[in-house]
Amino acid sequence: MDARLGTVLALVIVAFVMVLMTSARGAEQRRDEAEARQREADEQLAVVAERERVARDVHDVLGHSLTVMTVKTELAGRLVDIDPERAKAELARTALAGTSGVGRGAVDGRRAAHFRTCARSSRRRGLR
Fold this sequence. Notes:
The protein is mainly alpha-helical.
């Protein structure tokens, strides 16, 4: 009878250890999944932050360019009666700045931001 009791006790202990191991494995898996979700959320937040930064940069570039264009246009308006040739030259420079400078500055800023985001993402993933 003692041998049977010892066997039953050993089986109960083994079963208990197996339940504990299964529970620990499940907890570890849940923790790994939670960490993966957190990493994904952090990456999404980084992308949103970078987009907001780019939007601020584009806003600043456009605001500066439009202010310059406004000042030059006002100057040309004042020069029309005094020095028509200089007024035409100011208007031509304003038009040129408006068509090339504003758009190029915004695109260059977005392109640079995109490359920075890609580089950060690669570093996070262990790539260089």
